[in-house]
Amino acid sequence: MAKTPTNYSEVRPHPKFLHDQAVLVQAWKKSHAYIRSHNWYADSLELDVSAIRLRSLIDTWSDSLSISEISNYEPDSMRLVAAPKSSEWETSDGWKPKEKDKLRLRPLAHLSIREQTACMAVLICLADIVETEQGDPRLPLTVENQRNVVSYGHRLISRWADGSASFQWGNAKLYRQYFEDYQQFVRRPEKIRQQLFGDSESWAIVQIDLSQFYDLIPRDNLLEKLEALANEYWDNCEKVHERFFKGVKHLFDWRWHNADRSLSLEICGMKDGIGLPQGLAASGFFANAYLLDFDSEIIRLFGKKLTKRIWRIVDYCRYVDDMRFVVQFDKETPDDFRDEFEAMLQRLLDRFAEGLKLNQKKTVVMLGDSHSSNVPVAEAMQSVNNNVSGPLDVETARHALEMLDGLLAVSNSRKSQPAPEGTGNDELMRRVLAVEPDVRNDTLERFVAHRWRRVYRSLRVMADEESLTDSTMNIGRKILDQRARTFAVELLRKWILDPSNVRILRVSLDLFPVTDHLEVVLNLLHAHINKDDATDKRRLTAEYVGAEILRAGATETGFVRDDDELPGGTGIDAYRARLSEFATSVLDKEDASPWYLRQQALLFLAVNQQPQPISRKTTPENRHYGFLHGLLRGKWPTLAPKRPLASDVAVPLCLVAHRISGGKNSIATALAKWIGNSSNSVVTDHLRYIVEYDELFNSTMAKLSSKDRQFWKQIAVTAGYVSSFGTAKWEAIEGDENPYRLVDIITSDDNPFQQETAALRLMHELALQWGKPSQRRAAGQGVLTPSRIDIVCSSWERLADPGDSLSEITFEVRIGPVPSLGDERFAVPKWCRTSDSWKYEIGQIVRAAVIGKTDFTQPFMTKPLLSGVTKYRGVSSGWYKRKHGLFNDRQGLGHRLLAISPWLAELLGRLLEWPGTRQRRELVKLPTKFSDASLRRCIGNRLEELNGLYCRLSGMPLYPFPVQTTDDRETTGHLRVALVQTAIPKASEFGTADPALNEPATRRRHRRHVSAMLRLFMKLTEVREGYKNTKEKIDLVLFPELAVHSDDIFILERFADSLKCMVFCGLVFHPSPDNEDQLINTGLWIIPNQTSDGRSIRMIEQGKHHMTPEEISLGISSFRPCQWLIEYRKPNAESWKLSASICYDATDLRLAADLSQHSDAFIVSALNKDIGTFDTMVAALHYHMYQHVLLVNSAEFGGSTAQAPYKDHFRKVIMHHHGMDQASVSIFELDLDRFRNGHSETTPPPNYDGESIPKIKHPPAGLNRDCVGE
Q1: Under a CB-based contact definition with an 8 Å cutoff, are residues 362 and 341 in contact?
Q2: 1007: domain range?
Q3: Does the predicted TM-score (pTM) go above 0.70?
Q4: What is the structure's pLDDT at 1131?
């Protein structure tokens, strides 16, 4: 039985939280994600193995951090990775630093994942109080807010309420987005200066940098500050805090590995007990905490007159150790102002942040009376970022490239500033002519490099292959590729002149991966890598760069979504072959190369499918990489002859090797031999990891003897890992009353529980039989797993009907005895209260049923392994991690056509809620604590609601999909719609040879047209904004049937996200989610969603049931599991309800009759040449459905229209496009409330503005829609 769990409502500095498994799992998740994505250096294989072994690792770590054991805790030694700092190099006499004595290195620390996790647990315990002290970084940049927040760097993702922060510790995210907060920091001094001084020139902006910031923070002082802060926030907890920080002191006792100790002292002079490791994911947080007292003192000085000074500080902000001050002068600027200011700051640092020192070489003073303001680079960066974040057409992309080239020129100009001498007024000239961008060069150059690559690739996939010339709507690939080469060379040049620019070197090689460019880099590196002195800073610089390009070769360089994104003639295979030679040369040097360079060489060669014969004389850091290469060659890892590696490490390495190899048989062969040589208990313990990879499990089973194969398959079936074998796949047969294993039902192609009604009825029965302790005891207790459950159902069709009482059919859920082999994946976590365990168990079962997998934590779709050289992505998760971070949003449960609504997704989130997060409570009406009876009532109410919505005439469910408006404007009662009548593709382009329009030339032309139409839309909104003198918010944008290819959805996703509007578009024929060999025709809803956690994009597909003769001839299949009803929720008003159909489905009068009772607007997406018939249909439907009907057709035929049942004809036809071949965009408003409420001509509609009231027709007979006539 689980112990009484901790109360996680407020995680605080208490010893029990340091070893709490729920906290440690989340700490691992945050560390793992941050290291892989942001750290300068990462041991990828260590991260992979920890993801697979997480369950056992958490147990071990928890024990070592317990109250009784933490005093014996000894952190693993840190390994040093020496990275170059910014310095000038030259090539006049070989590649070398201009001033060798000034060459500096950054002491990056590689810490084990155990140490990263333990320190992240400390961060979680202290996050709320430290973040609250720093203030909300989202506050507007105003004088009124300037005392509330000054720190913008390395801020945690938190929710804010009444000035208090609540860190979101129950997910993998750690720090807020860099670009957003850095923009705030950069803009603040100028914004505050303008508000305070206006046109006055009696001011200065001072930029200050700290020297060796992380390296000089005394750890004991840091812990003292944190303990004092904790005591200030929580009264009478001093003893608890004392025990907590006493334990933390053991965790913070980091020491360099003996092999790195002397070099670390030489690089940074870092003594034991001093400094935060640069490489510890939590260091940014702790560094901010150390400066809290200093920040508070500077804020206290705002506006105060200083003793014997004619200046005062009026504003201050910082981004980690980069500080900006705004200073006011009472009189003329003193000649020694800079010296005075630096001396004062150093005194304050000595008092409030002991140990820290100013880096006086980086101090910059900009005086208001003789110095131009900063070059507003940050504003330009924001503008570019806004442009490239949305959809990119040819014109926008070309303009973005020009802006990025201009920003790079600003970076170059800073390095070539005039240095006047003998002019008679040298100082004034230097001040006036100086170019001081408000963003640091390295930051600007990285921004430009990454955005340029992104824009170039978006533009190239739209460019014509053979075109040599440019036009507004097109661009030639050859010209574009020439620009890419030029840009890549410029980035390469910047790296040569400053090797610390490794990130832009990586972009250069990724953008234009040719052997010539790589050869230049390798030749320069070889000149220093071959030096005899292993501590030579030039050699260390070259070795770090070599490790970076090898890491990039495995994870980044040349790996693109579309092959057309790579420049023509670059030869990625030749590039990788040359990089392989370099990697092999690194390994040939045995102990001459540092461990981290060898590590990356081994990773690259493994990804490049070139396993090496590795000797056992590898360093501990590289031993697992050697084992990985052995597995790729079919050899089981051994520590010595006849001494195999422990299975809890060897099996995870097998899984990594399987992924890297693309599923080669050598891995299955090695695994099969291990099974034959191991005890049954050992294999059984690890079987749950192997079955996660279906191909590996099946291949391994195939290599076993017939007897062993039968035995282990039966073990897997008994445990519930796989469905039954040796029998036919389960099928839903009406009238069949035989019991079937739930495992077999949900893993079949006919899985009936992928309909919400059926899933709810399964949940209801489980709550009825498993909700009370007495029921669980009667069933034998144990873990509730799908393998224990049998289902009897005589009519699956009626089970999916929410209005059927099921009184005339059999539906039984039978819970069997505890199986001899349990499935650990379904065990109730220790943090779950015993009284709530039934909720968690039922949630697990129903989630497994909905996603159709035996592992309820798995994503509904996993990418297949590809043979050949593929991008190394690592193992980001395993079942134990996913169990503590399930994505229970609607899109996390299944494909876009899955007949499951957000309501059920929210209910599953409530049942499977884990510590550190709070699931949404917007749709499901359940109290925080609820009983099994409350859950059953809730399900019953939901079934009644679904019964009221059910499309009886059409025989399918109508599921509501709530959407919260993403803007806070007051509702006008009108829905603003944009109708985009696209001209491509034409109906004639759909042929049997390529019905999905996948031919490359067609794809480029199609994508270009979609992007151009979005650009036309943006231009139209600009024109309307000009003559309406207001910025319009578009609610919904409509596209015709078959208008958008599935590969181009991301373009519309960016569009919807940037405009915060809904989109409905017809998708080109694409494979069915249930059968890739069948093509279907659907429409896609793209829906921006705003919640307390931020903004996200949701997507669902509306299926099509009725096929036209042309579609039948092309082999298109019918697929419409449900009809969606979009509930567009407005502030303080009832939702608007929208539904859509694809072309021919709209002619089904049964569907129109069903929807007329529920929807406020009916959308028809068409590619139809029979304009007359559809005109007549819309004219009839808008009255008989008594609502707006919107038809969007292809420009090839025209006829797009929007109509509503007004009395006057000129009002009835709101919009109509006449004529063929008219690509166009129309924007109009719909008064949806008018017809919902049945207002007559004498009753003013809501928000009536005093103008004449349009008359509407009387509702048709039999209309019974909610609210009509109220």
Answers
A1: no
A2: 958-1235
A3: yes
A4: 66
